[in-house]
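Q: How do we represent a protein-ligand complex in a form that can be generated token by token?
A: Start from the inputs.
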Amino acid sequence: MIDDKFLAEYENLLYQTERPSRYIGDEFGSYDKDFNSAQGKFLFVFPDKYEIGISNFGHKIIYDLINKRSNLLCDRLYAPDKDFLELLEKNNKEIYALESKRKPKEFDIVGFGLQYEMCYTTVLKLLEMSDIPVFNEDRNNSHPIIMAGGPCTSNPKPMSKFIDIFIIGDGEDVDIEVLEKYIQLKNKMPRDEIIKELAKIEGVYAPLLNNKTNKRIAQLTYENHPINSPIPHFASVHDRAIIELRRGCGRLCRFCQASHINLPIRERKKDDIVKLAKEYVKNTGYDEYSLLSLSSNDHGKIEEILSDLSCHFRGTGINVSLPSQRADRFSLELAKLAQSEKKATVTIAPEAGTQRMRDVINKNLSQEQIINATISCIKNGWNKIKYYFVIGLPFETYDDLKGIVDLIESVNLACRENGLKYPQITCSISVFVPKPHTPFQWARQNTILEIQDKIKYLRELKDKIKNVKFNFHNPKMSQLEAFFTRGDEKLSDFIYELYKAGSYLDSWDENLDFDLYQKIAQKLNIDIEKEASKEFLSDEILPWDNIFYGVNKSWLLDEYNKAKNSTATIPCEVKCNNCGVCSNFKTKKILDK
Ligand code: SF4
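Then emit the structure tokens for the protein with iron/sulfur cluster bound:
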């Protein structure tokens, strides 16, 4: 319930903002726990707009797991959009948690979900708007512990002056352990001693101690998956129930960070998935559910899962989507089961245009498989195809770029041979970012000029094909991502200056002021492009080397060297390549399961 005290303070401001429903909470499916009686109070902060944050599956898991415990409470906060932020600042008001309407400093732990590097300055602004010092060394016993989790913690160094503790790996178990330990220790010792104790938990990295840590891995069970979640008052980015099938991906694409940091592969049991989907849809009223995984059709029982679910939901108008299907395991039966009620766009990710380049990145996908999957879809009524490509990859040549256009021409040729109408093809083309803990972590990124030349070349080639549209990711944004993700603790000063200069919600193209980044780089004597496009030496200590994700560094380096010779590595589902994760974490290999 929205109480009178809150309305008296904020109602007038809410009337003036573009979308007040982002800031009132009280959504259907949200928890309503008593703030005062909770022993441990956790605030999950998503440093992006409400409609992005509310769709994030990771935060739904943590929100649900903490709130299921009778002694704990988890509330949420999303970054206010610029108009509401200005109103709050002008009126000297702090931000507040959505459900309890409490100020962030009233919580025990404030945990930020760092999904992408471009949210870093937003984190600082949200700390300022909470009246919490942005630097960790300036905080005292009156302040909550500032925590961060999510994929960006794979290199915590750039944010190391601002965050008290980072969670490395899956948060399910470790977040609860941190909160329970905090309850035991609060009021018994000073804050910095508590942080020292929390850093003893496996999976916790405290920058002020600069400890080494291993990531945490969670098992995928029925119990640790939500069957309900807050339904936004207005349409969000992904307005559907999400059921996670598996975590980790044994395809080991060499540029893919999600694949490497989420190993080993863990699969949720078929019966649990079916039960979760039925319950989640029933509890939320969604008319669509998505079976989430880095590669949905790699789940060992995917056909049975889809068959059970399609039988259950037949005739109800409730659809299922498989967000990431592999073209080599593409099955028309699966596609039909997954899209039984409506024909949406089919997405396929060749990532590169030539076989040579697909071997460099270890895509394990042939031209024939891509074309066959596409033609099967067109024959069965899908006429919108979306392909994902990456450009600027290590060892890429202009012939590899031409291969993207050649591939589309081959699809069109196959359509003519089969008497089919050309499909509408959209190519979403991103720029390679060398990510920590991947075989390409040592590689350089192309400069902006190099990428602009490549985009120009591709645009000219594409002009003669009428049924294709190219959407390019902003190369400046990709350069900044690389700059942040490969940086060390010195980047904290850069992030601080940027935040002071007004950078906020910079992952949105319309907010990104690239000149501001350049101005600050100049002031601090930093060359952004040089940092983003430098190649690390193979024996160099990397900024993220004290964080261990289980894959041996020597294996990553072998993979990088194999890429130079366009040598592919066989997926985990076919043969174990001894990357080290399964033995380091003493888990069963997917083949043995
Ligand atoms: S140890 Fe083998 S099976 Fe396990 S993740 Fe690595 S390559 Fe795959």
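The first strand starts at residue 40 and ends at 46. The two ends are 48 Å apart (CA to CA).
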